[in-house]
From TrEMBL:
InterPro entries: 6-phosphogluconolactonase_DevB, 6PGL, Glc/Gal-6P_isomerase, NagB/RpiA_transferase-like. Hydrolysis of 6-phosphogluconolactone to 6-phosphogluconate. Signal peptide: none annotated. This is 6-phosphogluconolactonase. Pathway: Carbohydrate degradation; pentose phosphate pathway; D-ribulose 5-phosphate from D-glucose 6-phosphate (oxidative stage): step 2/3. One of its GO terms (molecular function) is 6-phosphogluconolactonase activity. GO terms for biological process: carbohydrate metabolic process; pentose-phosphate shunt. It comes from the Bacteria. It catalyses: 6-phospho-D-glucono-1,5-lactone + H2O = 6-phospho-D-gluconate + H(+). The gene is pgl. Its EC number is 3.1.1.31. The keyword Disulfide bond does not apply.
Length: 241
């Protein structure tokens, strides 16, 4: 595992952007496409704007990228809560990419169950049984969740399917998510975490003794891949305790 701590959120995002440049280069020496699962929520918005802005947009080989999503809320893409909508707005709408390069969950004119099954098929068609995405971008909730793997969720036990769904009563919506089975076949799991409100969760996941049922991000442990944590100083503050 590699932990990188940056002074603040802007410096953190630059480090992640440089890491992605390096990984893209390495991967494209071995194969002619680069697969990345984007994370949702609010933290990656600034990273996505950085990647699609003047400083970085011309540095990547976007035509070689294939974009996936780590998890999704079962709402239309136009809904404020849609992870896909956030990714389009902050990143994809600004990039020279074709629709065929974007592989997201369907959330309209379908059911959560069908959507999960279809996404499973999309992933199984694209990847091999031994390896999923080159880079899996991940966030961390203040409660220790990553993807839509929430504390005590039944999805935490799913060891075979790559995609699952569940009803979240507290959020009043269905959620769709890659499971630990898919996450742990990625080549590079990359957590990007910023802000003081995340410091306790960061501490518990990296140094605490609580089980993964309570801090689900602990379940991310790729079989043949690496885990990277990119933190800003505020998120990392409790690690020195
Ligand atoms: O609900 C979600 O939360 C996590 C963390 O999001 P953040 O807003 O605290 O940055 C995110 O990684 C996940 O994709 C999202 O669906």
């Amino acid at each position: 595992m590699q932990i990188t701590v940056a002074k603040n959120r802007d410096a953190l995002n630059r480090k992640v952007a440089d890491f992605l440049l390096q990984k893209e280069k390495e991967v494209l020496q071995e194969q002619d496409f680069f697969t990345v699962a984007l994370s949702g929520g609010s933290t990656p918005k600034a990273l996505y704007r950085l990647l699609s802005g003047d400083a970085y947009i011309h540095q990547f080989e976007w035509s070689k990228w294939h974009f996936f999503l780590g998890d999704e809320r079962f709402v239309p893409v136009t809904d404020e809560q849609s992870n896909a909508g956030m990714c389009y707005k902050n990143l994809l709408e600004h990039l020279p990419v074709q629709d065929q390069q974007i592989h997201f969950f369907k959330t309209e004119n379908t059911t959560p169950e069908k959507s999960a099954q279809e996404y499973e098929a999309v992933l199984r068609n694209f990847f091999t049984p031994a390896k999923t995405m080159d880079v899996l971008l991940l966030g961390l909730g203040t409660d220790g969740h990553t993807l839509s793997m929430f504390p005590y969720g039944k999805v935490l036990h799913e060891a075979t399917k790559w995609v699952d769904y569940f009803w979240s009563a507290s959020q009043n919506m269905y959620r769709l998510t890659l499971t630990k089975a898919a996450a742990n076949l990625c080549s590079n799991a990359v957590f990007v975490v910023s802000g003081e409100d995340k410091q306790q969760a960061v501490y518990e996941v990296l140094k605490g003794s609580q089980p993964p049922q309570i801090y689900p991000a602990k379940l991310v442990d790729p079989l043949n891949g690496q885990v990277y944590w990119f933190l800003d100083e505020a998120a990392a503050a409790a690690l020195d305790r």
